[in-house]
Amino acid sequence: MKREKKKKTHIPFRLNMLFLIVFLLFSLLILRLGLLQIVFGEDYKREIERTEDVIVNNPVPRGKMYDRNIKVIVDNEPLNAITYTRSQTTRAREMLETAEKLAQFITKEPDKIRERDRKDFWILKNPEEAEAKITNADRKKVTEGELEEKDLYKLQIERITDEEINSFTKDELEVLAIYREFSSGYALTPQIVKNRNVTEHEFATVSEHLDELPGVGITTDWDRTYSYGNTLKSVLGVVSSSEEGLPSEKLDYYLSLGYSRNDRVGKSYIEAQYENVLQGKKAKMKNVTDKAGNVVLSEVVSEGQRGNDLVLTLDMDLQLAIEEEIERKLIQSKALGNTKFLDRAFVVLIDPRTGEILTMAGKQYTRNKETRKHSITDFALGNITTSYTVGSSVKGATVLTGYQTKAIQPGQIINDTTMRIKNTPPKGSYTNMGPINDLTALKRSSNVYMFKTAIAIGKGNYVPNQPLNLKNPNAFLTIRNSFANFGLGVRTGIDLPNEMVGFKGVETNPGKLMDLAIGQYDTYTPMQLAQYVSTIANGGYRMKPHLVKEIRNSENSNDELGVILEEIRPTVLNKLDMKDSWINRIHEGFEKVAMEPGGTAYKYFAKKKLPYTVAAKTGTAEAFYDGPTKDKYNGLQKTTNLSIVGYAPAANPEVAFAVVVPWANQGKPELTLNKDLAVFAMDTYFELKQKRQEEGGTSSTVELKVDNSDDVIQKQAKVRLSQDND
Question: Known catalysed reaction(s) (predicted)?
Fold first, then answer.
């Protein structure tokens, strides 16, 4: 019998292969898990626990401003403030709920709410009604790519009716006003919700309920205060509000310096010019956030420090007294008649040895368009932003230019009689003075002497009743370049922005050259006049005028002034390329104007037997009214500009002055406002000086006299000699 073959089974083999595959897979899995835990475990753990450090800068109060006698001009007033800081994950609905709670504790005026704010708020408050404003056709367009998802919100905004956005109650509008402040801030950056008129009750109540108000906080904010009201307000400048933040025109500039968009910065003049000094070091807060953007830790990095302080060159006692006199004289003069265009006056006092501005006064007579009432406002800024023909005050520069160009010689005699040029009106002085020299020409303010000097500069030959031709085509340029060395017709270099240069006449005929020589063609600012006369007063050095005297540290916690960080030293812009004897001759002529009988300012100074000597030059310019109400009048309206420049004491000048009164007269009686203000300014200056010396205090100016030699002036003033010919 045949034995049957034993059948071989494949089951064990297949099972073994399956076990092997499973084993290998588990081995790979274990290897992978090991790799993840051992090699990448720490990385994944850090990713899960990942946090982000966000540095937030909190603003600090700005630096103060003092006058030269350490009287506070600009300070900071502390304000109770309520803030809101939203996290990176805060939703609009959460902000709305917090705003509704906060509205129960404070009042917030809805005066800044815009129409768009109302529409956004309506959508937030009425989500179902807002959703119903989107049609199926609108959604189909999104599906088909004709519209984007964000366009649906725009459609909702457009379809909200006036009735719907005007349906809010008073309480809802208050919530909206608060919500608006919440939503306008940046993540993790405190946003001011209210800092004006926060009552003690509101402040305390919010403080007690902070745990119910996520993101809401309390702090102390600040506001600029001005110890002297509107005095010099236009020069001191303004600071943006917390709502304004950074000015849009300088947004990128400030952001590049590390500012936040809602930071308050100086917007104009001293506040803007010295922003980097006044701003201070911000307090830094580090917020640690988790992966979801929630703040898990906050800590102070640095406390910050308020801005450093400025000590200005101004003497506020002197400034206030002169401003009051300008106001009084303007009101008094307006009552005399024939002064319908008179609306402003300027007085600048400056130390000719250092360029320190002691007084920068300007007032303007204005009329409110709504109330029709008149008032006098601060216009100190007009000293650098407005210019006028000033008349004979510039004749000192004309004579010196004549010496320098050899058009005339010191002591030269010229016959002052009416000049008659063919086909032009007669030109002359206010009276025929006959043969006079340069000193008498200054003393009595001869126009003809200056006319003939200008003709000589132009290499012309005057023959009565004949045409006048000039052989020197550069005569205008010669005179203007010379005037520029005194500061006339160029920027003075004052430490303020937006300084005006003035206007230069465009006609170049001989008659206009003669007008230029007597200050009746080009226009100059009051500050340029002050720099010009200071250049003569100090022996020929054009000093850069400046308003900031010192920068002081603000680290002291008390009200004491900090240490000096920087002292603004005198700066010479250029030196006149003229002989000392020539300049001394102008000194002599100017002194005759004020101190010798027959001088145009004699009866205002020397005749009153004042306890000081003065050198001066008066000016009267025939002008045309070009003021704010010129459109009311047809054609050019003739008027008269008044000016006077000078310095005192005449032999050793420590103060120089420039007074400009535009559009003063339109007939008789002629005003003497320029001379009256000059006398008052000098009287007040020397009275204050004597009073302070008797009290053992400091004088209103530096007592050290700057030597007029190049070596000494460079050593003591640390000057930089640089030509400034704009």
Answer: Preferential cleavage: (Ac)2-L-Lys-D-Ala-|-D-Ala. Also transpeptidation of peptidyl-alanyl moieties that are N-acyl substituents of D-alanine
Question: Tell me, what's the pLDDT at 149?
Answer: 87
Number of domains in the chain: 2
Mean pLDDT for the stretch of residues 120-140? 91
> Which of the residues 392, 445, 446, 482 is marked catalytic?
392
Helices 92-102 and 170-184, axial angle in degrees (round to 10): 130
Q: Is 546 left (phi over 0), alpha (psi -120 to 50) or beta?
A: beta
Two tokens at 589? 């002529």
Q: Which residues contact 663 (CB under 8 A, 6 or more apart)?
A: 341, 342, 343, 344, 623, 625, 627, 639, 640, 641
Average pLDDT score over the chain: 86
Q: Domain limits at 264?
A: 51-83+223-312
**The pair of three-digit structure tokens given for residue 659, joined into one six-digit string:** 């007074």
Other residues' Cβ atoms within 10 Å of the Cβ of residue 652: 11
> How far is CA 592 from each of CA 14, 583, 705, rounded to the nearest angstrom?
131, 14, 24
Give the separation between CA 153 and CA 144, rounded to whole angstroms.
17
Distance CA 175, CA 157 (A): 20
Q: Is 635 exposed, middle or buried (0-12, 13-18, 19+ CB in 10 A)?
A: exposed
C-beta of residue 648 within 8 angstroms of C-beta of residue 682: yes
> What is the Cα–Cα distance from 725 to 613, expressed in whole angstroms?
33
Q: Are residues 468 and 603 in the same domain?
A: yes
Planar angle of CA 693, 697, 700, nearest 5 degrees: 75
Q: How far apart are CA 636 and CA 67, in angstroms?
A: 42
Asked if residue 142 is part of any domain, the answer here is no
Residues of 347-380 as b/e, b for ≥16 C-beta within 10 angstroms? bbbbbbbbbbbbbbbbbbbeeeeeeeeeebebbb
Cα dihedral sign, 136-141-144-145: negative
pLDDT tens for 210-231 read: 888 988 888 888 889 999 999 9
Q: What is the CATH number of the domain that holds 230?
A: 3.90.1310.10
The enclosing H or E element of 641 equals strand 638-648
Which two tokens mark 482? Answer: 């010379």
Q: Based on the domain organization, do 284 and 380 belong to the same domain?
A: no
Whole-angstrom distance, CA of residue 645 vs CA of residue 678: 8
Token pair in block for residue 300: 């102070």
pTM value surpassing 0.85: no
671-721 pLDDT, tens digit each: 899 999 999 999 999 999 999 998 875 544 444 333 444 443 444 443 333
Q: What are the beta bridge partners of residue 674?
A: none
User: Would you call 87 a catalytic residue per the annotation?
Assistant: no
Contact 535, 576 (CB under 8 A): yes
pLDDT greater than 60 at residue 722: no
What is the 8-class DSSP label of residue 38?
A: I
Give the helix/strand (H/E) hosting 435: strand 434-436
Shared-domain flag, residues 500 and 379: yes
Structure tokens at 177: 């006003």
- 546 DSSP assignment: B
CA atoms in the 13 A half-sphere facing the CB of 485: 20
Cis peptide before 12 (omega within 30 of 0): no
Query: How far apart are alpha carbons 362 and 661 in whole angstroms?
Result: 10
